[in-house]
Structures are given as structure tokens and as C-alpha cells.
Amino acid sequence: MEGTVSYALIRDESGLLLERTLIRPWGQIIHSVLLSDRAAFDRWCEADDVRFSHPLLFSELRRRCSVELESAGVSQP
Amino acid sequence: MQGSPSPEPKARPTCAFSGAMAVARVGASRTKPQLVERLGQAAGELGADQSYFVSFMHERERFDSYRFLLACDPAWCLEYERKNCHLHDPWLYHAKRNGRPIRGRDIPLREEERPTVELAARYGFVSTLIVPTPAAEVPSKGGVLVLGSGSALFLEDETFSAVKVLARSLALEINDRLTDLLREERLAVCRLSTLDVDLLLWEREGLTTKAIARRSGLSHEAIDCRLRRLNAKLGAASRTDAARIAAQYGLL
To answer: Are B147 and B167 in contact (CB under 8 A)?
Structure first.
């Protein structure tokens, strides 16, 4: 994948917001999605190429997301 | 003083009112997660089952920002990004040139834009309403709300006019709230002082270092040093860029 990718997690009473920023030479695309449950998170994980290009980063993200979702009491799929 | 009891209202609010209330709740969102959640709820009130808002900004020369708030399948956005769809997105193109809401099907498509529309359709945006939010104060910035449905019958009945009015309000509320939240975020990161803001404002006005020195009472060296620090804080390539970015984020 071309560019630099970073993630931010923001949790409040509405749920867990995952913010993904991809910076490329021409600019940046940032997307924010609210992960309402584990199923939504797993679907999102399946779609992100970063799991192949940066597996360590991705596994750390999965771990932190899981912790946040558990803290929020979000149900398993 | 005792007055007579208030008479009952002659009419009760209708479902259009609940749509308006949902829009108002978007405007009262305190956080980004809440904003995204309420975007989805308000879009649902307007009959859409998928929606997103994208704010675009020309940050500096050859550097653009696209910020998506997704109340739809996020896999769509990842694929959109992979395929560089922003280069051939007829809805974005419309929003950059036109302030009027329009059904997606009424926007003439160029050949290279077809894959972008087909991709969106695969993720549930079969019929769409495209609602631009021009930002008059900063010409290089704008946004667009896209309401979508997997049904081809969405917006094909007499409710279209009412949905259009509410969708326009919704787009403006999201845009305003997102701008506020981004400004707060930037302020927290940059921690600009009053003097920083003044320097950026003077830079924005096109004043030279000499003129700024006269107004601020600082030496040329102190001004240059402070503006260099502001470049770093704002991620700008030059002081002109720093002033532009600060203005775009509403910091000035």
C-alpha cells in the first residue's frame, strides 16, 4: 500500500469510533466509522488491506479494538 | 398570577417533525462518535438506509483532504480509497461546483465515473440524494452528504421535496458540527496563544515581517522563529500555508 496509514480509537457512550487516516503524496483520506458491535468490527477488519501490508500494526489495532469493545460491554457476534 | 390553561395545539407534529428533530440532534452532537451515530439516525428518519458525509479541503498546493463520516458499510470506503475513486466521483464533482441537492441519477455521468457509481451501488447506494454544503467563508473547502437506499424507489414519490429540505438542513448541521469538532481537536493539539493567532491573522492579511514587527513589538527574529514553530504545529510547509490551514480549520 502506498502512503502512511494511522488509526485512532475514540470511545464514548455512542460506541467505539475508529478513525483511519491514509496519507499519500497528493493528500489524505480519513474515514470515521462507528463500530456498534463485534460483527461490524470483524467485517471492517476483513476489508482493510493493512492486515496484509502491515500485519503487526493490524494485530495491535485488533487487540486494542477488542479491549475497547469489551470495556464498552459490546456483545460478541 | 393564575392564567387560563393553555389550549391544546390544533395539530400534532407529523413524521416530518421527527425528521427535523433528528437533524437538530445532529447539530447538538458533542463528540465525533455521537455525530456519526446521529448522522445514521437522521438519515434513517429521511428514509435512507445508507449515508455518509464527506468534507473536502484543499489544504495546500497539491495536497487535498477528504474526511468521511460513514453511516454505511465501511468496506465501501476502503475500496473507494484503493481505487482512487475521489478522482472520478461524480457526486463530489457536483458538490464542488453546485450548491443544489440533486438525485444521483440526475447527474450526467462521464465514462470514467461509472465504476465509482457502480461501486457505491454494490454497497447499497442504488438510489441517492446528493446534498452539497458549500462553505462560503473558505472557497477551498466544502462537503457533501450522500443519502442512499438499496431500493430504486427511494425519493421517487411525493416525499422527495420534503426530504430534500430536511437533507439540506442535515448536511449543514453535520458540516457545522464537524467543523467545530475539528477546530477543537486542532486547538487541543496546537495550543495556540493569542499572539499565535494574531501572527497568523497578520500573515493571512499578507503583512511583511517588518509590518508584523511594528504591530506586535517583536523583533524580526522572534517573529520568524514563532512562525516557524507554528508551521510545525499546523503541519504546514510555509507560513502562508500555516495561515491558510488555520483559517480553514476556523482557528482564526
So the answer is: yes
Residue positions counted in chain B: 252
Low-confidence ranges of chain B (pLDDT < 50): none
User: 3-state DSSP: chain B helix, strand, coil percent, rounded to 5?
Assistant: 55, 15, 30
Q: What digits encode the pLDDT tens for the residues A17-29?
A: 999 999 998 899 9
pTM for the predicted model, two decimal places: 0.83
- C-alpha–C-alpha distance, residues B90 and B110, integer Å: 8
Q: What is the pLDDT of residue B2?
A: 53
- Which value does ipTM take for this structure? 0.92
Phi, then psi, of B147 in degrees rounded to 5: -105, 130
| Other CB atoms within 10 Å distance of the CB of residue B112 | 10
Residue showing cell 458525509: B53
CB contact B59 to A (< 8 Å): yes
Separation between Cα atoms, residue B193 and residue B38, nearest integer Å = 33
Name A24's Cβ contacts closer than 8 Å, sequence gap at least 6.
A2, A3
pLDDT value, residue B139: 61
Compare all CA atoms of chain A with the CA of B31 and give the residue at the minimum distance: A12
Domains assigned to chain B = 15-186 (3.30.450.80), 191-248 (1.10.10.10)
Angle at B71 between CA B67 and CA B74, to 5 degrees: 70
The domains of chain A are located at 4-71
List of chain A residues whose C-beta atoms are within 8 Å of the C-beta of residue B33 = 10-12, 14-17, 34
**Other CB atoms within 10 A of residue B63 CB:** 17
Q: Taking CB atoms and an 8 Å limit, are B34 and A43 in contact across chains?
A: no
B247: burial class by Cβ within 10 Å (0-12, 13-18, 19+)?
middle
Contacts of A47 in chain B (CB under 8 A): 74-75, 78-79
Closest CA to B182 of B242, B236, B245, B228: B245
